[in-house]
Design a protein that fits this description.
Number of domains: 3
Protein name: DUF1116 domain-containing protein
Radius of gyration: 23 Å
Largest sheet: 5 strands, mixed
Organism: Actinomadura litoris
Shape: globular
CATH architecture of the largest domain: Alpha-Beta Complex
Mean pLDDT: 92
Number of strands: 18
Helix content: 25-40%
InterPro entries: AllG-like, OXTCase_su_AllG_h-dom
């Protein structure tokens, strides 16, 4: 074997002749001691499974057909082909009756609703003419004058508070591969907006304009354009520095490039109103977020209902609880207390002003975008707190708890590796690594609006509870 060095022939592979690298896990004492001696250390984020989960892990991991079930679920998720096909009022698209509202996250009662959730519901009451004043709306809601249930129960998703009322216009997305439909409201922009719990006159005025001008204009453009391939837009946007949760600048530009000619040519849209709609969308870097959320919802819903699958198909927050749903356990929610995000704050706001995590927008992470694709969006890390290596490390950690790499959504900085997709409950529990979510931060008090942006993790118990439920069916 000429040309082979002694180190390569040695059974220890050169361990005694090269500089050692030590991999450590658990407590930091060993790693710190080695580092003090100038030894190169690679710490691994690992911890033993939580007490009381051994039997459930064994049952689920040993269940016949589990690997096949997960392969089927994640396969359906990554082969979904979401297309924007229409824009319609919620009363038509979802059949919402007067006094019926949807909200983000798992089920919630008024008594447990957080400040921003209450603020958004108050705003919806004012928008729909069900109350004349914020105080009157609050009193009406407290006595049960309106009904509200999760967006997810209607195939929909809503950012932050996620409140949807009958007159709000919805993006309608259809999965061309598996046939499902999903919905999301239109994006209002940033600052004092309904989804962050604000309900002042400017909020209601903007929503009224969106119902009278923006919604009909977008409907005309989408219908004239025909089905718009959202996965293609998302894939291109990832190549251009978006991660499709907190950064949608490229995706918004790509969407407007597709729709602007059809909007301008639509005979039913007056020229001035077309210009208003384009000006509003172009001035809102998050305009695509809601379309991306609906696309992610369509992909996640395609993976629902696979018996034996331990893959997560929804992660959602209502400002009080964080909830997940799993493919193999149907529509059952597993919930725990929502955490307060860590990040950067606007103006003189700080952590004391922040509400616990809120919104359905974690559907983007569920489908392999958002925090799971942070390595694709180096520009965003300073906005949510951190540096570029932190973003790369966050994405790399997510490969440890997911079932696949998305074939269409690729990250240039990782040599075009597909984004991690398909959160596996068993891997989360076994490793102790929790999904990373990048998110906006809503003010704790109703009416405040956005106070910052950052990163947040789910409560660990939701994955442990889901694991135990899966074990019961194994």
């Amino acid at each position: 074997m000429s040309g082979t060095s002694g180190a390569e022939r040695h059974p220890l592979g050169g361990l005694l002749t090269r500089e050692p690298v030590v991999v450590t896990a658990g407590v930091d004492v060993l790693a710190d001691a080695l580092a003090d001696q100038a030894v190169r250390v690679e710490p691994v984020d690992w911890r033993p499974p939580p007490p009381g989960t051994d039997a459930a892990l064994a049952a689920v991991l040993g269940a016949p057909g589990r690997a096949e079930a997960n392969a089927r679920a994640v396969g359906r998720m990554v082969t979904a082909r979401p297309h924007l096909v229409d824009v319609r009022p919620a009363r038509e698209a979802l059949g919402l009756e007067p006094g019926a509202f949807l909200h983000a996250g798992p089920p919630l009662e008024w008594e447990r609703a957080s400040g921003p959730m209450r603020g958004a519901l108050i705003g919806a009451m004012l928008l729909e003419g069900l109350a004349e004043t914020p105080l009157g709306a609050e009193r009406a809601l407290a006595r049960g004058a309106a009904t509200f249930e999760p967006c997810h129960h209607h195939g929909a998703v809503g950012p932050m508070a996620g409140v949807v009322s009958p007159s709000m216009w919805m993006l309608v997305v259809e999965d061309a591969e598996h046939g499902g439909r999903s919905y999301c409201s239109l994006n209002e922009g940033l600052g004092k907006v309904l989804r962050y719990g604000a309900y002042g006159p400017e909020v209601i005025e903007r929503l009224t304009w969106m119902g009278e001008v923006l919604g009909p204009a977008l409907r005309a453009a989408v219908r004239r354009h025909g089905p718009l391939d959202l996965l293609s837009v998302i894939a291109q946007a990832l190549q251009m520095g978006d991660e499709l949760h907190n950064r949608n600048r490229a995706a918004t530009s790509l969407l407007l490039r597709e729709l602007a000619p059809d909007l301008a040519a639509a005979p039913e849209v007056h020229r001035d109103r077309a210009a208003e709609a384009l000006r509003f969308a172009a001035g809102n870097d998050h305009f695509f977020l809601n379309a991306g959320m609906a696309a992610a919802k369509a992909a996640a819903d395609a993976a629902r209902g696979v018996p034996g699958s331990s893959m997560v198909v929804a992660m959602a927050r209502n400002g009080t609880d964080f909830g997940i749903q799993v493919s193999g356990t149907g529509d059952r929610w597993f919930t725990g207390p929502a955490n307060v995000p860590h990040g950067l704050y606007l103006g003189d706001h700080g952590p004391d002003d922040a509400n616990p995590d809120i919104g359905d927008s974690a559907i983007t992470e569920t489908a392999g975008m958002g925090g799971f694709a942070l390595a694709a969006a180096p520009a965003i890390v300073r906005f949510v707190g951190g540096e570029v290596p932190d973003a790369v490390a966050a994405t790399r950690r997510m490969y440890e708890i997911t079932l696949a790499e998305h074939p269409a959504l690729q990250i240039p900085l990782l040599s075009f590796r597909g984004t991690p997709v398909g959160v596996d409950v068993t891997r989360v529990v076994r490793t102790g690594i929790l999904p990373v979510i990048d998110t906006g931060i809503a003010g704790r008090e109703a009416g405040t609006g956005q106070v910052g942006a950052g990163l947040v993790e789910p409560p660990a118990n939701v994955f442990e509870d889901a694991l135990r439920a899966l074990a019961e069916t194994a």
